Fold each of these.
Amino acid sequence: MNGINRFAVVLLAGLCCHSVGAQSLDPATILSPHPSTWPTYSGDYSGRRFSTLNQISQSNVKALSLAWASHVTTGSHSAPSGGYGPAGGGAPVIVGGVGTTEVNAQANIRSTLIQVDGVIYATFPDNAWAIDARDGHELWHYVWKTRGGTHIGNRGVGMWHDRVYMVTPDDYLLCLNAKTGKEIWHREISDFNLQYFSTMAPIVIGDHILIGTGNDLDEPGYLQSLNPETGEMEWRFYTVPMKAGDPGLETWASLDAASHGGGNVWVPGSYDPETHLYIFGSANPSAAYTSQLRGPGDNLYTCSMIAVNVDTGKMAWYYQTSPHDTHDFDSSQTPILVDGPFQGKQRKMAMSMARNGYFFVVDRTTGEHLLTSKISDTVNWASGLNKNGQPVRDPAKDYDIGGALVSPNNQGTTNWPPPSFDPETGLFYVQTADSISMYYLATLDPRGAMGLGGKDELNLGTLGTYLTAIDYQTGKISWQHRYPGVASYGLQNGVLSTAGKLVFAGDAGGNLVAYDPATGKILWHTKIGVSNAPETYMLDGHQYILVAGGDTIYAFTVNN
Amino acid sequence: MKVPIVSMCFLFSGFMCVVASGVGTAASQAPVAPQEPPRVFMGNTAFPDRPKAPQEVLDHGKAVYGVSCSFCHGSDAGGGEGGPNLLRSEVVLDDQNGERIAPIVHGARASQGMPPIDITDVQITDVAAWLHSIHVTSRSLQPVTPINIVTGNAKEGEATFHTMCSSCHSITGDLKGFAGMYKDPRSMQQAWLMPGGQGGRGPGAGAAGAPELHVKPATVTVTIANGQKIEGELNRIDDFYISLRDKDGNSRSFLRDGDSPKVEIHDPLVPHKELLRKYTDKEIHDITAYLVTTK
């Protein structure tokens, strides 16, 4: 194994030195990504965020050090400052947009950083930057003038040949020239009047761009496929019934409730080339808390893992992880696709650590349930599991006039930041919290409220925040590292595992930390205020760890 | 759907400064252009309200709505016995001046149960203007009315208090006057569940104007290599660093490497945290009801 990897590294050193000028990505190569790239949201389609690279390993990680840091500034008046080394100087700022206003917040990069041909693409709402992966200097900066909307985040670009794609909070998909940052076209992907807003990193599969949209009112969720050349819609898959006769309608009180039932799609999913299925998570039903007008049913297909055919948008299977959710516990988390043994049998699986506190394993070809495990012992919103492994909601824990003590809090045991799976340890790594809130009913209107209204949540803090390693075959926690102290930490920003026998993740203190994947032992750290999930790739024969800390992007390598 | 609060705070904080100062941007901002562009606010209020129609139009529209529509769609347009919620309706949200609404009022959806209503297009335009004047948000259908959260049994709460709380607290001792400090029982309930608050969302715990409780801070004892112990209030800790404030007010900090130096945290709120795993909601409600009687 080690010998093979060494061979691969030597091979890479010969192959990887593309000139910056290429800046193109054949979508077919994402099926088995070159280790010199991080070409899609999760690094590959499996969602594992596991890299086969092992140049940085347990034996040399102590020598991991800064290669460069690059600071980005939002807005059309920004001046690229380049790295903290030589000045970047003069990178063009391209301004587009249909609105008149600009984001003027300091950038806080929580997106995936796509890296292809030595160029990194970073985003923040209404802003995209191309950055030279060799020294961090800015190549171009695109600014979108917005008409408003919920500016809550942007999760990165997708790439198809020499184009990059990003969504905007006011519901456009932008197609940019990867070399210049110049806009090729923009296309409206959701109805802004209905208060949709868009954050998701577009996922490119062959000649399809898959995108979902967010909404906190009661509008229906959907995933759609667009043509990468023109932006024209190819299909749209609604996660809730939209007309009489649609499957799942029987789980809603009425068509009006179903078609205003939420289930938005705002986190990238994974892709199984064998079945040609895109597998993703849907968000909470709406109204989120006061559910009486939704009826007593399961409210399909909200809070579910859903598999759709990439060419047709037709659903192949679903598994609902929170039937009739009443806590805004989106099941949006990126599923991880794994081939491996499961309780004595070889299986093709999809795994998800859900916001509701439960870990799920299903068969990814059929959706058959394989395992459910409660990962946080404070979780109390469900009274148990049904025969299909689904948590059974305890209505007494919805909310109460006198207050209901509920765990987890609205942020969840985990949230959208990505987990990782290491095939060598067989462990699923995810950052979790034992969080608790009081949920108070805030309206006596028998109709309940719309969207996220109707309850007040008053936080009681967390009893612990962790990096958690789960054995997927048993659902048991293999090891757990508790972030020290007494404070109530928020959830952290996601995980990377590598064949160098390393797990990288930001901690509650703002450190980027390398852990032993088998034990959780700390092996290296640096304090940079991590704000996204770390990534890795090879460039010029050197393995890099790439991570953002607020408005700065950091590249680490082992300096010789 | 909602993302972790940490990220939202980060986004919001940038905007807060903009709002507060009216001019400034992040410190890193490049030279400011002579004419500042208008600001975008990163929040849920960023969906623009429409320009308001003249008051007489709104009054007329509201009156027509009341007479011809409210019976089915509710007096606040939020839905009623027969008719759907119009505030979240795609037709209404996408409508500009009644053009999307009018055909339906005239009978286009009769087969789906919406009867034709005998009003004129001018009246429909005014109704539309009134509907569009309603601020629609994802948070609430209408203003939140105060709800009395004291639902427990005070008598049983007294017994529960003696079982769960009295080993540390006494109504006539440290809790004398505690309940009286709060106008809102919900804030009081949050305060006794987790004194000092842990950061609430919305009114209640930690809200401005809430009484300040004198909660003992967490302290820490750091034992360095030569056996010397340094003690003080815990300031900050992670796996690699700890800082404290000693009794003379000095800030002291140490790098951490595994168990070196030895760190012992003393958290006075441990019993409160452990009880969060144990309380039933009834016990919480009963204790609150009892504490209200001690005002």
Note: DSSP finds two helices and 39 strands in chain A.
Amino acid sequence: MEKPLTARIRPDGEAVDLKAYERAGGYQALRKALLEKSPKELIEEVKDSNLRGRGGAGFPTGLKWSLVPTGDGTPQPRYVAVNADEMEPGTFKDRLLLEGDPHSVIEGAAIAVRAIEGSAAYIFLRGEYVLAAQRLRRAIGEAYAAGYLGKNVLGSGCDIEVHLHISAGRYMCGEETGLLNALEGKRANPRTKPPFPVASGLWGKPTVINNVETLANVPHIINNGAEWFKSLSRSKDGGTKLYGASGKVKRPGLWELPMGTTAREILEEHAGGMRDGLKLRGFLPGGASTDFLTAEHLDVKMDFTEVQKFGSRMGTGTIIVLDDATCPVGMTLNLEHFFAQESCGWCTPCWSGLSWAERILQAIEDGRGEDRDLDDLEAITKFVAPGNTFCALAPGAAEPLQSALKYFRGDFERHIREKRCPWPS
Amino acid sequence: MLTPEEQREIEQEAASYPERRAASIDALRIVQRRRGWVSDEALADVAELLGMSPAELESVATFYNLIFRKPVGRHVILICDSVSCWIMGYTKVRDHLKARLGINFGETTSDGRFTLLPIVCLGACDRAPVMMVDEDTHLDLTPARIDAILERYE
Amino acid sequence: MATIYIDNKPYDADPSRNLLDVCLSLGFRLPYFCWHPALGSVGACRQCAVKQFKDEQDTQGKLVMACMTPAAEGTRISIDDPDAVEFRRNIIQGLMMNHPHDCPVCDEGGECHLQDMTVMTGHDYRRYRFDKRTFRNQYLGPFVNHEMNRCIQCYRCVRFYRDYAGGRDLDCFALRDIVYFGRREDGVLESEFSGNLVEVCPTGVFTDATLKQHYTRKWDLEFAPSICAHCSLGCNTSPGARYGTLRRIVNRYHSEINGYFLCDRGRYGYEFVNSPLRIRDVTWQGGVIDGAAGVERLSTLLAAGKVIGIGSPRASLEANFLLREAVGAANFFAGMADDELRLVRRILEIMQSGMASVPSLRDIELSDAVFVVGEDVSNTAPRMALSLRQSVRQQPIRSIEKLRIPVWNDNAVRDAVQSAKGPFYIASPYPTRLDGIATEVCRAAPDDIARLAFEVAEASDENSPAGRIAAALRNAQRPLVVSGTGLNNAAIVEAAARAAQALGAALSYVLPEVNSAGLAMMGGGTLAEAMEAVRGGAAETVIVLENDLYRRAPAEAVDALFRSARHVVALDHLTNGTTARADLVLPAATFAESAGTFVNNEGRAQRFFQVFIPHGEIQESRRWLRDAMLAAGRIEAEALDRLDGVIGALGRALPRFARVHEAAPPAAFRLVGKKVPREPHRYSGRTAMLANITVSEPKPPEDPDSALAFSMEGYSGQPPPPLIPFFWAPGWNSIQSLNRFQEEIAGPLRGGESGVRLLVPNGAGQQQAGVPPAFQPRNGERLLVPVYHVFGSEELSREAPAVASLAPGPYLALSPEDAKALGEDTAEVSIGGKTHRLPVLVISGLPEGVAGVPAGIPPFTGLSLPAWGKFSRMP
Ligand SMILES: Cc1cc2nc3c(=O)[nH]c(=O)nc-3n(C[C@H](O)[C@H](O)[C@H](O)COP(=O)(O)O)c2cc1C
Ligand code: SF4
Ligand code: FES
């Protein structure tokens, strides 16, 4: 089984340096992109590969790139923003690439810059990823020194700059338009769409925003072709996927597997199943902002379409497992606390609804719940539904809440009835 | 007054953006790295350097959670309170930390050694519970391990 | 026009607008918060949700925010859809989660948009049962009170203050449900537009701090349509009074002038009306006499002959005209400083010549390249500065046309435009608050500013500053030149006109005072001539109308005038140098206690009406004069009793005022047989408020001068715009009820905008002043230019306590170089033969050889500035 994303990653945890990266075929794709292929061809190749965005929403990457207006009279400069904010609870996949193989992200970003005939990429890194920052900084330096970045890259006549921006924390910075504001040194409130960032993004210029994992795939696609990429997958979406598992499984971790691997295979084979004495009660398939699924859904193929059929989303593909010794109400409270705390405060349903939901859940967990609370929680999930809010943060918050109310309703009711949390704390 | 090094570093960051104010977060981080936190005076100085008003910069500074607008201890402990860590025993670790340090979240030990803050998911969920002390990430925490870790920070 | 369907009925809609705007224009009751007609849409509050359907078949639909959705052809929406209704109710529930239940003690109560919207959505039961978040409030200065617990996070305040008005000290802090809107620390709000927060905030976070001193609910105030008396722009206002005192001023929308906003001088200057300095009694040589005796005295003086009258640029046309009638046209003098009068007359000539078109403030807002020639607009005509701030957005907005972002989509436009600004050039001797938006600023002495503008008119070389300005204006679609009387320089006025004419730009002049244009149009001699007449013995009695001559001429000259006159009569509101010297002082009604007409800097005549009946002997100047004329046996004064009679006579006597009567309907105007009530229909206490005087409720006072009644009874629909005392509509108690009074949102008021432009271009007018020689600095002397202060330079607002608290004291402004050379905190300077020792204020950017003194602030009142000042020790 090919594992293009992780094949180079060193078992000792050190980063792949430029030499090693080059030895493993690194920057060949950039060379090709600059010297052999036209920007249009790059976009076509990525389109054909069925690469879908790994940031959680699964937007087709080639299509996104193709929406950038290029040619005479279109706005210049154009930018690429690399979304390395990774703050979705339960998600720890981009970190591996950033720390372990930073050049793959830089090369992917550089190719993206070329594809949109842009001038620069900004890597937006969350502040807590200190090691990743060191390694990215070093790698960017190496790439400049080797002529993979800077002026007239590889004699192509193209200039490609890559800048590292280190953020100061906030989940909202990962939302693509919040990220743009944050990069501009502003509050990371989301921006109005349309216009989409591909038309008006950073400093009002066309900007493509892609996730780290998305971009790390790009050099491989350019090197090996769209057909190869599709062949890696067990699903319609191309490529491999970094899947993870956390919670009380035997071997929590991260694995590169064919896109479309089932949740069962991930949890039972790779994560080794539940810890002894525990049973799986439910799982969030791809981070905090996805709906709970339960044991009966374990055979779902983890990709962008299949998981949706069961009312959830693949999201970031990093599974969080709820076991039967852990309180589902407490877990939901923990999740909603996170979302309420990270609400940017721009739109009413989010800032009011999530803080209310958190307080209700806290009351239930503390044994102060009332019968009507579940109705109110239900109502809040509808209140913050997609379209009702300004961005996807609050609808994301509704997903675990609404599904918890569905699958673990009895637990909620028991808390209210018994006026306490039945789980030993 | 910003030191010449601070100014130089901020200018360097500012150079990588087409607008100076884009460097505001970088600049606040630069100041904080050297001073531990961002005082009102430092904030005003940074604002001036970047052509912003203090209120504009404060509006940015208070949005982000890693900008400290109050003094902190010599070491800042960020303990992950997000879902995977919670499942894996965050509560016990937190309570142990609080008891051991004798402080609550947002507080600094009386000897000025530690400030304790919660933080959202640190992206190491497979090694939960997790915390950061200054720039170091500590994995697989247990109450017992915490004591040993804290020893390392004077 | 597009056809859109609202709850299955077709309507015509302008596709360039958004659905909220369209629905409100059509009269639908759709609640909203974050949207503001002047600030556009940002989609934050989510209150305006409606259901949108793809087509007739679509029965599901989806919720959209009306304010964020264009009214495109074929759009189908439902306002009444149960999901939409439910969602809107839930939004209010969310907003009310933390909102205190303090309406009874909240200053906003009774005119609160949040109250209105809560009622509109039918939210009446709060399911939220937890603690509310609380905040600490800030001291924000004398104008605006802060009560953050009432905040609903609609972001309007910062969008107005920061994005629209360019203020930089108010912002939002933190996030989630604890966003804090305020300053970084307690302190006076810096923007001279801060008072608009009171109206922009849909709840009681920002309220009028001066109203708080004598608080009255909106429904208990009596209002009249009025015109701001504190600069030459003529912003429309709605003052409110109770118990015979003026309580506050709010904006009265005029689409061509002030739109939705006022400046703080206009909003808070009103307090002079309640000042302890008010003259309420008639006095004769220091002793109080009654009104009849006062009339008697004046009539005797009139009958004795040898009387001259000195009019005033802050008095109405009608008052000035009555004075002119009383003393005879030949004995009427204009009451402005002589050079100022000359300048204003020249400006009127230019405006009438057709050299350039005269823009309204709305036109100024839409200008796309601007050259400000020697006028500190932020301080002399603040509301114009707010319009100018919008002008720099025009070219950048045009440049993003390809993105097809509707202009109302405010944040999208701002994100796309970023910090780009259109061409904006300022020539000024000292820094101004508009410098921050300027492309280029030229600091120069007044004559050099004139030289620059003359050069702009001729320029061809794009590499010179003048050439760049000329090119920017020439390449623009709606270029504009702004100038004015601020520097009191004829060459500047002339040069601005030349530049505007040469570049095809519109031309706007700022004039000194509210009725400078009206007075200058009325004719009359100069002050020097008046003094000459008295000195020569041709006149023995001088009647000074609402004018402190010590602000018009040097004290020695005025003293001399008063010494040589046998009798001085002063009619005024407040005691001042002139009233102190007068034998007969007659207490004159202020703008709020009288009706009349002001002519603004566009030459637009606008009517203001009496808000309340003052205490004491106070009456309108024109009535004092008319009563005295009658008593003196002047039968023609019979016809000058009522305002309409005065206006008619004015038009007949001076044909250039023939159209003044069109400014507002006459007193006989009735709507279904009724007058327009000054009081809201909930006005309380009418039967009780005079019970200490008489227990039987007296008949409301008559108002012979207008179609307005001192009553809550009368016509309850929408009156014609010049007669709208306040904005209110069923279900809309707040200022937002304005939506109900417009033909379309942000468009003219129903019935057409008020005011008549009196100056009709006639093609006459020759260039007068030529290019002045270059400014030559002098040794040991500095040219003292007037430095204007929005708070302090204007005469009447100076006496409003809140405004006065922000006015500077006297100072001498020096460049850093001069200050250094001087090396002291105070400096001694002689001007016009007098020596002053003053604190030094360092202003960087003052050109060499130039210094500044605060305009209109003692001891520099009455001096003709700029003037050379001699320093005892200055190189
Ligand atoms: C609240 C919120 C947080 C997000 N955080 C991240 C993030 O940390 N990293 C990321 O790649 N995408 C994040 N996303 C998704 C981005 O908005 C965006 O879809 C993604 O970066 C696009 O990249 P892709 O097309 O390569 O997936 C977030 C979205 C929301 C609504
Ligand atoms: S849903 Fe609304 S308040 Fe929440 S993060 Fe998005 S824009 Fe901000
Ligand atoms: S008015 Fe439409 S979202 Fe606020």
Note: Residues C 20, 32-35, 43-48, 65, 67 surround FE2/S2 (inorganic) cluster (ligand 3) (CB under 6 Å).
